[in-house]
């Protein structure tokens, strides 16, 4: 099996003909809708020429990308491996089984389900499996005994009643949790009675005693751990202790940090898989695979997770499951461990670079792949900072900080992540330079006004020349670490 994706490896792939393959593919596309071909070329050019610091994005390998563009896309395969509701699924069986096998081996999980189309789908499958496994209703008993023909209106009524009365405790969105962890406007905040735990108002850190106290009082069926904007590691052994004490199921959403788990940066109490009853992830963030989701589970939840389709999912995306198998095979290679360690080292360097330049970071730093910068000290909203940085070729996303006075739309934070530029080969000194460039933009930007002259939370004014200078300094680093080197489109 080949070594994991590295810029050097990538270059070999392209010298072996992938450039010609992409050129041919783009001509075929252009013959039908030239604007799509053009946008596809432009997307590559844009990604090559900017500093991509969105914490949830990455650059998948050429092998992973190419696997998604095949005739597997045309195949329906509802059901599970070897047990499908459609004919002629033998090749889908092969790739789905491979994706699951690689996931089990990589994460040391008893069971893996490769069908979820996304992270939210993976979480819906997890919710379904927990409800089906832990809530007793005549409906579920008859379903499990395959006596569905005996179901009565009363069984359905009781199912709705029981499912609708369960409780979920998850991390608050503004503390770094995710929409699907019980945020009110999300379905997870509607299908469960929900409460949220936050972080310490002084330190910004998770306080396990507070989580335990909330759990004792609220007695959730599901305790959700995991985050999308918390710049620190979580002790999953402690979260499991809390869950066990109150009789809850521990569900961990590791979408953001799955690459750090796969690469053995998070081990022991920081590896969620042995502690969680059910673990969910996306495959495209730090794990560097195709866009999609994955569920890992302890054996007792396996048969309920297996019913993800048809309970909450449509037909699996066979071409993406094939690409998951390829990406997970890459993540099992030794080079992926080095990559994952570099992600964490680079985040530290970025945080130290900010700290040395007087920036204010939520929790004061990082020990994962995320750095969360409070931009209010520059007099800016997250929205203004995001737009100013984008003008200078620095791609980030605005993000709430704990107790954010500007809410979820304008925000007071900018979230940075290191997985993508680490894939390009950026190292610690370059991430320090990235901190310098970001600070240069923000300290030379002021809030703007609306057309009517009122103060605005969206518009901004940057000192002339700054954006061009930052772009030029970024270009030196980007040229040194090209994206998909050797890929030349005609
Ligand atoms: N949208 C993803 C992120 O940016 O973290 C999470 O769903």
Structural write-up:
The relative contact order is 0.15. The chain has helices at residues 7-32, 34-48, 62-68, 90-107, 119-134, 138-144, 153-163, 188-191, 208-218, 236-246, 258-262, 299-305, 308-311, 318-331, 334-356, 382-391, 407-410, 419-424, 428-443, 466-480, and strands at 51-52, 79-80, 83-84, 111-113, 167-171, 193-197, 222-226, 249-253, 278-282, 293-297, 360-361, 370-374, 394-395, 397-399, 413-417, 445-449, 455-462. The chain has 2 domains: 71-331, Aspartate Aminotransferase, domain 2, CATH 3.40.640.10; 334-480, Aspartate Aminotransferase, domain 1, CATH 3.90.1150.10. The longest helix has 26 residues, at 7-32. The strands form 5 sheets. A 7-stranded mixed beta sheet has the order 4-10-9-8-7-5-6, sandwiched between helices. It has 20 helices and 17 strands. Helix 19 (428-443) runs antiparallel to helix 20. A hairpin with an 8-residue loop joins strand 11 and strand 12 (370-374). It is an alpha/beta fold and 490 residues long. It is globular and about 75 Å long. It binds D-serine.
Compact description:
The protein has 490 residues and is of the alpha/beta class. It is built from 20 helices and 17 strands. The model has no long low-confidence stretch (mean pLDDT 95).
